[in-house]
Known about the structure:
single chain, alpha/beta, seven-stranded mixed sheet, four-stranded mixed sheet, binds pyridoxal-5'-phosphate
Amino acid sequence: MTTFVSGRHFLHTPGPTNLPDRVLRAMDRNAINHRGPEFGELGREVIEKLRPVFGTESIVGIYPSSGTGSWEAAMVNTLRAGDRVLLTRTGQFSHLWEQMALRFGLDVVTLETDWRRGADPHAIGQALEDDKEHRIKAVFVVHSETSTSCMTDVAAVRRVMDAAKHPALLMVDAISSLGCTAYTHDAWGVDVTIAGSQKGLMVPPGLSFCAISQKALAARPGGSPRSYWDWEPLVAANKTGYFPYTPAMHLMWALREALAMLQEEGLENVYARHARYANATRLAAAGWGLELQCQDPAAYGPGVTAIRVPDGYSADKLRGVVLDKFNMSLGNGLGRVEDKVFRIGHMGDLGVLSLMGALSGVEMGLRAAGIPHKEGGAQAAMNFLSTDR
Ligand SMILES: Cc1ncc(COP(=O)(O)O)c(C=O)c1O
């Protein structure tokens, strides 16, 4: 039985993120005819306003699905059983993407990591150089590996693909990076960018996105049997602001409001804010004397920080104490790092004081859960946040 706890819940998972009041209010209305003119206007506006966030002039398709749906769409529209793909297992989400590819009968070449850094562009480049017959049809990259808080340098991956003169498609999972850091689908030469509504975009779960290059669209005849996930009817309908089926219209209203908020703050400011909060969180971890899961400073993520508890201690116990005592949800360790890390989500709609509340909650939780640590992590974050900018 849950007991009553006063005060607001601190949602510090790396998605879903806090929903701004403006976004909540935008959904508080009656449904409309999704084939009428008002919906078409909404659809066109949302798609247009998504473009700068993806850094693309190309197609942005919207599915009423979680991010996993757009993973599947990217795969079945461009690849078929037996096709070879190259993926780096940087953490749990690239692992799950690999598992999906295997279920579709793809021939997956997986480069392993220790889950403490991003994908290695040199290793990807070498695998492509070795692939003289161009059997690799696609390179899969998770931009922000939410399970480890490590980033992969997508531009560097494109550079090695170009250097190897390899024609594979570049597919990027930007689910937990979009809206948190600069992303440029076109400039990085990405063929499919996959994203979701519930993280940096501050919208409830339930929408996913595929930014699609002309090259990826042209690969459709080589894809798998598909129906719901077929890009063709989606892209054709989205062009006019509509959907080939009943759209999640309330989420579209939410998204319009969230995009307006991003526009008002200015994307550069949004990204700078995320970088600043991530920095403050890492200073707190250093102050507690706890290790970051990410060991490469160049790969630190903007929206989430995964922190290791000392060997022999339980990160899940810490999270349980923090939830029970302080009414705060933290992200859990996934897969290989289950119970070894906890993750502080600092993406989406967040002010300095919310972040400080979260970091204070963690520090109190460490003490209450009996996890060995040093005092003063929250203080280190406060020092930084009060003097910086
Ligand atoms: C990097 C990454 N990829 C994929 C997913 C799966 O997305 P969804 O849960 O929206 O299907 C997540 C979810 O957290 C994620 O963080």
